Write the structure tokens for this entry.
Amino acid sequence: EVQLVESGGGLVKPGGSLRLSCAASGFTFSSYSMNWVRQAPGKGLEWVSSISSSSSYIYYADSVKGRFTISRDNAKNSLYLQMNSLRAEDTAVYYCARVPDAQLRSPAYGMDVWGQGTTVTVSS
Amino acid sequence: SYELTQPPSVSVSPGQTARITCSGDALPKQYAYWYQQKPGQAPVLVIYKDSERPSGIPERFSGSSSGTTVTLTISGVQAEDEADYYCQSADSSGTSWVFGGGTKLTVL
């Protein structure tokens, strides 16, 4: 069964850091690009970051650029999101999602498999 | 920054046809994708590359594209289709992905 499982969410103070992980199983992780997408409470979906299969291409939303870092370890079938300088507006459920394209080509692809999400709360 | 525009809400009676639009300047160059999200659940892909339907998605879901607007059509709407629907695409360079604001489909 194709599966993505996020972990690492929690409560953190403004200005703090958190590292999210996403464990992939049931498919050849190294053949796919991956995304992080978030959803603030009661709000819509927001794309956060993308990484290609070999980490050659990495993109960030303007709202997180310079604060968040996406990475992956294909040997461990894992995706990560290092979040620094966290703000209240980063409070959200964070989803990892699979992109059925290895190189993040244009025209861009969508996301065909999603995890269940991990909750990040930034509050003092 | 690039934006996709969706109507906030659409309401239909069971058995009728629901149409949800999504507009964006780069849609002639980039594919659109549609996701269904029910409360407390992760999004599910229902249409990819403007009009393709993933396996397991009912045939009543279809997609179309015309210029800067794409449309998700749900024919013969059922109560179980009540959900939020999001379109997703990318800017013309393909390096910045974007979601529409979402449309809440209510089945009356």
